[in-house]
Amino acid sequence: MSDNPLEAVRWVWMNGKLVPFKDARVHVLSHVVHYGSGWFEGIRCYETPDGPAVFRLREHLERLAASCKIFRTELPWSLDELTAAVLEIIRANDFGSCYIRPLVYRGFGTLGVNPLKCPIDVAIAVWPWGSYLGPGADQAGVDVCVSSWRRSDPGSFPSTAKATGSYLNAQLIKMEAVANGFVEGIALDAEGHLSEGSGENLFLVRGGKLLTPPLVASILPGITRATILTLAGDLGIPVREERLPRGLLYTCDEMFFTGTAAEVTPIRSVDHLPVGEGKPGPITRRLQREYLGIARGEIADRHGWLTQVEAQGEAAAAS
Ligand code: PMP
Known about the structure:
By secondary structure, the chain is α+β, with helices and mostly antiparallel strands. The chain has two domains: 5-127, D-amino Acid Aminotransferase, Chain A, domain 1; 137-295, D-amino Acid Aminotransferase, subunit A, domain 2 (D-amino Acid Aminotransferase, Chain A, domain 2, Alpha-Beta Barrel), CATH 3.20.10. It has eight helices and 17 strands. Strands 8, 9, 10, 11, 12, 13, 14, 15 and 16 form a nine-stranded mixed beta sheet that branches. Strands 1, 2, 3, 4, 5, 6, 7 and 17 form an eight-stranded antiparallel beta sheet that branches. It is globular and about 55 Å long. It binds 4'-deoxy-4'-aminopyridoxal-5'-phosphate. 4'-deoxy-4'-aminopyridoxal-5'-phosphate binds at residues 42, 170, 196, 199-201, 220, 222-225, 258-260.
């Protein structure tokens, strides 16, 4: 049997309709195929004791709208309509925990670079997706390197937009890391400060303080990053968002990645040097437990981050 999780997908939401998986296609001359004119999200739905629930759905859809706005693309659906569509496609596929991929793209129209005459199409796919950085990475930690590829400077590419085209840079970072035997690469920004992984934000711990690069370091404003900053505040862990020099990678006590797909993944070595004692540290573990505890409904959802997939009607009727 194939271990491709996409084979479990039966329906894809496309422009308001549920389309069978095999029919969810685009024309080869669509603008997005040629010029990377797409904007997307990665969201997770978790099994909780009250049924499946989507983590921070509103914030993800707001970021999608922001990504589109930067590229002068008007979303043809309201955030409430997209919320309903996400819940509908999860139910249609009968998934419990799953990954959710909304995609807005410039479709088939003209092939000039200017996208404005091309239609704005929207698709939402869902599929079961396990540990992004490999089985057991959440417990053991991962081995990473500093990439020779840098993030673009903010005047060339807006890292605040989650655009499909930007992921060509991410692919260079990832492929180089894997070719050299690492799980992931950490990119520097154009000025040589720490930026982020190919699909994850970066956190360091030094002397009990949590450090993370700021938005000006060409990072995606990660929803998991924002979640960890809030949780650190709740737990009384001091946080600093600031430009960080590469050298700190080799002298910090703990380090971890955050991302919807990667969740909280400890980093145990960088460029073959151990991070701290070479295993996940106590602050990483504490934040990981809190994050997953809330996402899985095991710790009270005190910030209102979960949207239940089932029983929407009942919840609305009760309120
Ligand atoms: N940086 C990049 C480049 C990413 O692709 C992702 C994944 N969306 C992240 C950071 C983490 O963002 P989030 O926590 O919102 O998934």
